[in-house]
Specification:
Among the domains are: 98 residues, no CATH class; 31 residues, no CATH class. The chain is globular and about 115 Å long. A hairpin with a 2-residue loop joins strand 5 and strand 6. The chain has 18 helices and eleven strands. The longest helix is centred in the first third of the chain and has 48 residues. The strands form three sheets. The protein has a seven-stranded mixed beta sheet, sandwiched between helices. With 629 residues, it is an alpha+beta fold.
Length: 629
């Protein structure tokens, strides 16, 4: 059996002692590089060193090691490279040959450890004997001497709480807000929002009541997210001057904002204009439905027939739910009424246009990653569950369902409810992005990852996206607003509504393809066909972008403030400067992704005075397009 190779992870990948404790696995793995997890000699040495003064049999040690890898495989099953590697490691070390080798090495290591222990004890005994002799001599001298010195009072220097230690730290994002005349703040944006969140957290755990905005800012800041979706004066904008905020918003929207591009086919736009005119002329939908039925069987509309299904659903909603559009009935309707009657049928129909590769699950289900992460933070508590999400957008493979987007719904514009929903939605979206980061295998793909989300209130909604913009700083940006028409008079705007849903769908489908590519690439590297002509296939190196990720803040069980915990490794792991990316490098690598949506059908887009193709890895393509002279 071949020794497993570490595909898709950095060579220095390791668990911390805190991570081992959170996962409830033995601490022998703490600091042990993943590259040696498949080396039974290294495993035996690491386990012996971690339990040097304990009498543990080889069988017990081997069982404990296998159990640790089983837990990692189970709780990190959505971390594609890690799960695959640990699965292979388990099979490898459980083989008869490797198990026997481990037993031999472990027993030898135990004998050596006992010898070192005895030598240490003997040296200690000798020191004690000599110390006693020396102490006796000192006692004789003290008896013949006198002193008037009074001992100094002992000063207690242990005043720093864990939160105080965090307040002395700074984030590594190197993104600075520029005020008037371009003057930069001394502290980075990531540090500003995180330290403000830490101050709020200190007040929160001491049972000081926070407003909805304060709690949202705290949750986002502790999750390392700059929330640019909330443009209110009470959001994170309150931490900066107007000039600073506008400068930051301009930079982020230039990098991540999607420019408008009509995605609804021209024939559908024209057909809807006719349907709208017929409905408004007769103040009913009878003739419009006859016209739509003819279009559905017309030969020249068969290629866009699924778009016609979406138009028909819109007519059904307008005609069959009159109470939904009257204000006097608004208080009697729930968010799930709007979801079931309007949003779910339309979203499902739009997803079906390209074959329903995306699935929406509604009704407060949970992202496995969020649940697992929260359980590790509150590992001393039972029955811990992640965010209950109104809408999860999923991509299914043969073995797993992968979260690629999230949504929250409210029945109407209620400020407190929308602020609370946005607070949760931003963290849900970040968890989705982190999950995607754990799937893709190369930096080029990771640098362009994004997680899109949908916030609904009644017939209106807003979509946004979350990005890992800098080392230790995520950014959530608004992308578009949409509103379902409330009557015949406004039904012409449905094309704009459909356009936004098509954008959201395109982003989800692009994300799904990245998952498929990563799964297949890793499987190809692990397959038995990986060796040809006695040469191993090249190793998939780990991503530098992994070091940019930060943990998510999760509310305490049953919202008991005193039980709240800060995320582990809030400011990330220490790392070498060689792994750092400059802000300029980030901008060069990421700025083009938002333009991908505006490319033509062959992937060509004109940008910064030159043509580039979105399917080519390089940022620029010097060759001309085929339709140019």
């Amino acid at each position: 059996m071949k020794k497993p190779l570490l595909h898709g992870l950095k060579s220095d990948y390791a668990f911390t002692n805190e991570t081992c404790r959170s996962l409830k696995i033995d601490s022998f793995l703490s600091g042990l590089s993943a590259t040696v997890w498949s080396d039974v000699d290294e495993l035996a040495s690491a386990f012996t060193q971690a339990h040097e003064n304990e009498n543990i049999t080889a069988a017990k040690a081997f069982t404990t090691i296998c159990y640790a890898f089983d837990i990692i495989s189970s709780k990190r099953r959505k971390h594609l490279a890690l799960h695959a590697y640990v699965t292979d490691v388990l099979k490898y070390i459980k083989s008869k040959e490797m198990k026997s080798k481990f037993y031999g090495k472990y027993e030898t290591a135990q004998i050596e450890a006992k010898a070192r222990f005895e030598a240490h004890n003997n040296a200690l005994r000798l020191q004690i004997v000599e110390s006693k002799k020396y102490a006796a001599e000192l006692d004789k001298q003290i008896e013949h001497s006198s002193t008037t010195d009074t001992p100094n009072e002992q000063i207690d220097t242990a005043t720093n709480t864990s939160n105080t230690r965090h307040l002395n730290k700074r984030e590594r994002d190197e993104f600075y807000a520029a005020g008037r005349k371009g003057k930069r703040r001394a502290m980075s944006v990531g540090s500003v929002i995180k330290l403000d969140a830490l101050n709020s957290f200190e007040n929160y755990v001491q049972s000081e009541k926070l407003s909805s905005y304060q709690r949202k800012n705290m949750s986002a800041g502790l999750s390392s997210v700059l929330d640019m979706v909330d443009q209110s004066d009470e959001g994170q904008q309150s931490l900066f001057t107007t000039v600073e905020w506008e400068d930051m918003k301009l930079q982020m929207m230039e990098r991540y904002g999607v420019q408008h591009k009509r995605r609804v086919p021209d024939r559908i736009t024209t057909s809807w204009s006719i349907i709208t005119g017929l409905s408004q002329k007769d103040q009913n939908f009878d003739v419009a439905r006859i016209y739509l039925a003819r279009l559905k069987v017309a030969p020249n509309y068969q290629d866009i027939k699924k778009y016609l299904v979406v138009l028909e659903i819109c007519l059904n909603i307008l005609e069959h739910n009159p109470n939904m559009f009257e204000k006097k009935h608004a208080d009697r309707l729930t968010e799930y009424y709007y979801l079931n009657k309007v949003w779910t049928p339309l979203i499902d129909a739009v997803f079906a246009i390209n074959g329903s590769i995306i699935r929406m699950k509604s009704g407060e289900s949970m992202n496995d990653n969020s649940t697992s992460n929260k359980q590790e933070v509150y590992h001393d508590r039972s029955s811990i569950a992640g965010f209950k999400i109104d809408m999860r957008f999923l991509y299914d493979t043969d073995e797993h369902e992968y979260d690629i987007g999230a949504g929250e719904a409210a029945k109407a514009y209620q400020e407190a409810k929308l602020v609370d929903d946005l607070s949760k939605l931003i963290r849900e979206s970040k968890d989705v992005l982190d999950g995607l980061m754990n799937i893709v295998l190369d930096d080029h793909t990771a640098n362009k990852l994004e997680s899109w989300f949908l916030q609904i209130w009644g017939l209106s909604a807003e979509i946004g996206s979350t990005h890992l913009a800098f080392d230790g700083l995520y950014v959530a940006v608004p992308q578009a607003k949409l509103r379902f028409p409330s009557n015949i008079a406004t039904m012409g705007s449905f094309v704009d509504f459909l356009d936004v849903l098509l954008l959201l769908t395109a982003k989800f489908e692009k994300c799904a393809m990245k998952i498929t590519s990563a799964v297949e690439e890793l499987e190809n590297r692990r397959s038995s066909m990986g060796i040809a002509f006695s040469r191993n296939r090249s190793l998939l190196q780990g991503k530098k972008r992994d070091a940019w990720m930060r943990p998510t803040y999760y509310s305490p069980p049953r919202d008991v403030a005193a039980d709240a915990k800060l995320p582990v490794n809030l400011f990330g792991f220490d790392k070498d400067d060689s792994d750092a990316h400059s802000v300029e490098d980030v901008e060069d690598d990421q700025v083009s992704d938002a333009s991908d949506t505006n490319a033509d059908q062959f992937g060509w887009v004109y940008q910064d005075g030159a043509w580039r193709n979105v399917f080519v890895m390089e940022s620029r393509v010097d060759t001309h397009r085929p339709d140019e002279e």
